[in-house]
Amino acid sequence: MTGHSQAARELFERGYNCAQAVFAAYCDETGLDFETAVKLSSSFGGGMGKLREVCGAVSGIFMVAGLKYGYTSPDDDETKAEHYKLIQELAEAFKAEHGSIICRDLLELQEQTQTHIPEKRTREYYQDRPCADLVAGAARILDEVIGQRHP
Question: Which of 5, 14, 108, 111 could form a disulfide with 136, with the two C-beta atoms 3.0–4.6 Å apart?
Answer without folding.
Answer: 5
